[in-house]
Write a structure and sequence with these properties.
Rossmann fold; alpha/beta; eight-stranded mixed sheet; globular; binds glycinamide ribonucleotide; 29% helix; three-stranded antiparallel sheet
Amino acid sequence: MTIRLAILASGRGSNLQAILDAIAAGTLDARVVGVFSDRPDAQALQRVPEALRWSRTPKSFANRAAFDAALADAVAASAPDWVVCVGYMRILGAAFVQRFHGRVLNIHPSLLPKYKGLHTHQRALEAGDAWHGASVHFVVPELDAGAVIAQARIAVEPTDDADALAARVLTVEHPLLLHVLGLATAGRLAESAGHALVDGQRLYTPLPLPLNPT
Ligand code: GAR
């Protein structure tokens, strides 16, 4: 079944482009029904036709809840099966998460539960971590705290600075996200009582990517 994806993005949109490319290549049975942003200048918006773009500046709303409500109404109007945050840099309020309960995903550039929030690459370097990576998880109101579905790991190199590490993590983010969306298109992914389910089975540890490391 072709699933309908609402995409939330604040920036460059390389993860969105990976989704669009996979759809065009016929490897992801999905349709992007809207791209929603808190940054009218987000490059991500330019990657889809104008009719699919929605952006508002949060400052033009009375408060955070009012912005979230407008965003939620716009997302709901696109009738998505899944809401996917790809570089969306605002915390989604509880009302938003509740409205799309169990159908909101986020990609985060760390091996959660390590390094929730910002500056993940710098923090991994400062901690002297040997491994770093990215996680795809269900969104809950608490920042980056929802059930993790899958993770991709890379080795930290002695020469890495935060930018180099971010660039290498990004190369594993795209296949990681597409793998999870593939589970969603196949109807294999769900959330229940705060846990990620694949094929109806609770995941006790995140799925590793690549699935068959050498
Ligand atoms: C990605 O690295 C994503 O993991 C990160 O922003 C980048 C967006 O890149 N997300 C977060 O930090 C969310 N807290 P993109 O705009 O090229 O997809």
